[in-house]
Design brief:
- This protein is of the alpha+beta class and 207 residues long.
- The chain has helices spanning 7-13, 17-22, 45-48, 52-57, 107-119, 157-170, and strands at residues 36-38, 96-97, 105-106, 124-127, 134-138, 141-147, 153-156, 172-173, 176-177, 179-183, 186-194.
- The strands form 3 sheets. Strands 1-5-6-11-10-2 form a 6-stranded antiparallel beta sheet, with helices on one face.
- Strand 10 and strand 11 (186-194) form a beta hairpin.
- Helix 5 (107-119) runs antiparallel to helix 6 (157-170).
- The longest helix has 14 residues, at 157-170.
- 36% of the residues are buried.
């Protein structure tokens, strides 16, 4: 930095690191965030008036861990950040954590996808028969949807976000996350979270 200023100028006018940094907009203090990519057919960030940085800088509430035993039952407590939901939760899937080698995602990337899905609220997140669409990708994280029955199924994207929230709350191992959880209110739609979510090869349980 000092090489760009002459010694005479420094002696005459003094040197202020703050003012010099302000003259250089590409300051190393500006944090860069990965791009958040919505899944096919879902609203773009621009249409929502959002930037990727907004989704990284918003911190969601975690689920209250003591309310759910370590065995991960089929009916988790409603996430407090998602507001009031009906008491009954129909599910055909048992939530599960995985942790395969090279299959986890950074928790901050997972949370950015959670924030995106939460931001689109009651927009439909649909899984077509035989498909496992990617609903969000951010940095190392992939969030996909899968159907337990193999048939087309739909949930509000905010309910898919509840599944993501369950995973990053209960399946966070030193900042690395991988797991699967049912969308809230539709246990036939499973949210698969990881570095490269893989066709429900982990944690599937039909009942």
């Amino acid at each position: 930095m000092l090489k760009s200023l002459s010694l005479a100028a420094i002696l005459t006018y003094g040197y202020s690191p703050k003012s010099h940094a302000a003259a250089n907009p590409a300051s190393p203090l500006t944090k860069a965030y990965p791009e958040v990519h919505p899944g096919p057919g879902l609203p773009s960030l621009a249409s929502l008036g959002l930037a990727s940085a907004d989704l990284y800088q918003s911190t969601p509430a975690l689920l209250t861990k003591p309310s759910i035993p370590s065995s991960h039952p089929k009916q988790p407590t409603v996430p407090p950040s998602l507001g009031s939901k009906p008491a009954e939760r129909h599910t055909a899937f048992t939530n599960a954590c995985q942790g395969g080698e090279d299959a986890t995602a950074a928790v901050d990337d997972v949370i950015a996808c959670f924030n995106y899905l939460q931001s689109i609220g009651n927009y439909d997140c649909t899984v077509l028969a035989g498909d496992q669409p990617q609903m969000c990708r951010a940095g190392t994280a992939s969030v996909e949807g899968a159907s337990v029955t193999g048939e087309t199924t739909t949930a509000a994207c905010t309910d898919v976000a509840a599944g993501v929230q369950w995973v990053f709350t209960y399946c966070n191992n030193d900042g690395q996350v991988e797991g699967s959880a049912a969308a809230y209110g539709n246990g036939n739609l499973v949210v698969v979270v990881g570095a490269a979510a893989g066709k429900l090869k982990h944690g599937v349980s039909r009942v």
